[in-house]
Design the sequence.
């Protein structure tokens, strides 16, 4: 296990290095003088000079990279030019909002995707299976921002059941908080539910055809016991890892969902930053998502290796 | 007299059929895949023939017909400045299809050579290239595309570049995996044994054999690219107004949802139909090309 851990960590270090190069390199894409580009429309000479000083724009590239990395290691993600606040604070402020949304969406995905996958596999090649498979294809193909707009049209505008937008923190009112998040969580979770359904179905089909399941049936166990106790456990392992991999999709889609439902989270932060030409914020958000993704997959791999000793070799 | 027909039957069922013919035969049998292909062809025709089939100019405003619901005159209604929604959907197909085509071509052009080199050379080069690919995969697809579009500046071309760059790692990984699986096949060893140079082995012997999975992935990636373009345009980072694109139409429609819901229904339905069709075709293609299935 130690050897596995060491190898896995050895893989992370170069990946992190390239991620940092990629994000640092974004700045180089700015047309012309980055200080002028970052200073915005008015190009106040004082601001330009401040930016040049703050980001060491006159220093050679390797030195600038080193200073940038050193800052991040010390927790300095730069400062928002527009709001004049540290990027780190902005990110920590928005993180719980997106975190709650993403958590609820994952819950929706699990609650729909896994049961649907099990049922489709057990009822293999029946109308139910085809229906579930078709529904999954729809879930993958529907643009979630459109689904969001349609749901607002139905549940807010026409029926008036749910608020169309806005966000209330759970501390203010848990009920209101959940009411505002039902639609966004469904919109965000639905595509992942579709992916989970597909994977659960194929994993279940494989396991249901295996010898030990046949043995369990031969012993005279009931269908539900065979499916839930014997088959499901083994088929869920790859599905759990999938959850970590789908985290990236979740964050990508959260940007759109937050935009549709005007939820002040991570996604709204990066989109607003893009339009305000607040490049430090854009870089900070990209860096944080990449770090979260790398760490989550690292832990998923370890969890996987703990469950399945064959992978440690 | 009796032996003859049996011979023909054997010939028909077995030999003499090239792999692509077999795949084509399997593909034609899959009705959903053919339906998907038909819909894609329909959208392509719509985009090419836009000047001929569009009932109105997509940019002409008409202040006498602002936010009019669907009618005989405007089958899909009009938008907030009186432009015909149907005309904008037809012209908007161009942006979506261009995004699908250009982004995936970019991703193929960058990803396939990277994967070929990494898979074939192995060792340090492989490790180095794959860590770079891991780094790109670590940034969620749309967030990377948003960041790139932000730094490059918002436009359809930049959105396509951003999507292409974000899709590159998928193709690099897939190509590498495929190269690894065929690298030690006997026909590759044979090609090496008779003294073929490396580039010839890679291009003439390995590449043609790994095209089927790449083709399937390209179809599915085109679907993803079309959604991504719509998403970037929805956020205001793709096609810029007044040029029509389905994503930016939805962006505007969001603000008129209670007054003019048809503005939101049609562009979304167009994205959904095109993406679903590509996915149906891609899934069918995968099944048809897989020798183990059918």
Sequence:
């Amino acid at each position: 296990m130690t050897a596995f851990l060491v190898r896995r960590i050895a893989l992370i270090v170069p990946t992190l290095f390239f991620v940092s190069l990629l994000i640092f390199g974004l700045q180089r894409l700015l047309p012309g003088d980055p200080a002028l580009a970052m200073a915005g429309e008015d190009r106040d000479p004082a601001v330009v000079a401040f930016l040049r000083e703050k980001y060491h724009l006159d220093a050679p590239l390797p030195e600038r990279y080193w200073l940038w990395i050193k800052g991040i290691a010390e927790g300095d993600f730069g400062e928002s030019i527009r709001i004049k606040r540290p990027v780190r604070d902005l990110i920590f402020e928005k993180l719980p909002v997106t975190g709650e949304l993403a958590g609820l969406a994952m819950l929706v995905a699990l609650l729909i995707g896994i049961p649907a996958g099990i049922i489709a596999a057990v009822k293999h090649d029946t109308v139910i299976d085809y229906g579930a498979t078709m529904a999954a294809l729809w879930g993958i193909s529907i643009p979630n921002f459109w689904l969001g707009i349609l749901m607002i049209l139905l549940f807010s505008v026409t029926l008036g059941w749910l608020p169309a937008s806005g966000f209330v923190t759970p501390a203010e009112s848990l009920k209101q908080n959940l009411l505002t998040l039902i639609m966004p969580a469904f919109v965000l979770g639905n595509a992942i539910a579709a992916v989970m359904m597909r994977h659960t179905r194929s994993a279940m089909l494989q396991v249901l055809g295996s010898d030990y399941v046949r043995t369990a049936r031969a012993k005279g166990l009931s269908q539900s016991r065979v499916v839930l106790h014997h088959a499901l456990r083994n088929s869920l392992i790859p599905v759990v890892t999938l959850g970590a991999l789908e985290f990236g999709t979740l964050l990508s889609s959260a940007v759109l969902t937050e935009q549709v439902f005007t939820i002040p989270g991570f996604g709204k932060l990066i989109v607003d930053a893009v339009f305000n030409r607040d490049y430090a914020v854009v870089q900070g958000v990209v860096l944080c998502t990449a770090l979260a993704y790398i760490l989550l997959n690292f832990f998923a791999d370890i969890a996987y290796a703990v469950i399945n000793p064959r992978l440690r070799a | 007299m009796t032996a003859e027909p049996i011979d023909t039957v054997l010939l028909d069922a077995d030999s003499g059929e090239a792999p692509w013919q077999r795949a084509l035969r399997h593909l034609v049998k899959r009705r959903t895949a053919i339906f998907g292909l038909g819909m894609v062809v329909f959208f392509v025709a719509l985009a090419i023939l836009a000047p001929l089939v569009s009932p109105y100019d997509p940019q002409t405003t008409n202040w006498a017909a602002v936010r009019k619901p669907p009618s005989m005159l405007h089958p899909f209604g009009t938008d907030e400045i009186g432009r015909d929604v149907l005309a904008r959907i037809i012209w908007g197909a161009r942006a979506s299809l261009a995004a699908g085509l250009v982004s995936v071509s970019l991703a193929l052009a960058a990803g396939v050579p990277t994967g070929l080199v990494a898979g074939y050379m192995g060792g340090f080069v492989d490790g180095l290239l794959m860590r770079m690919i891991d780094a790109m995969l670590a940034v969620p697809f749309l967030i990377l595309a948003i960041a790139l579009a932000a730094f490059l500046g918002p436009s359809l071309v930049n959105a396509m570049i951003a999507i292409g760059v974000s899709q590159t790692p998928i193709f690099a990984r897939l190509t590498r995996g495929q190269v690894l699986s065929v690298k030690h096949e006997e026909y590759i060893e044979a090609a090496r044994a008779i003294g073929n140079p490396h580039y010839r082995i890679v291009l003439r012997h390995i590449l043609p054999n790994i095209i089927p999975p790449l083709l399937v992935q390209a179809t599915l990636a085109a679907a993803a690219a079309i959604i991504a373009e719509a998403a970037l345009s929805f956020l205001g980072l793709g096609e810029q107004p007044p040029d029509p694109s389905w994503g930016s139409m939805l962006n505007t429609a969001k603000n008129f949802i209670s007054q003019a819901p048809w503005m939101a229904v049609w562009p979304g339905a167009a994205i959904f139909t095109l993406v679903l069709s590509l996915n149906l075709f891609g899934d069918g293609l995968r099944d048809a090309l897989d020798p183990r299935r059918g």
Chain A touches chain B through 52 residues (CB under 8 Å). Chain A has 13 helices and no strands. The longest helix of chain A spans residues 87-122.
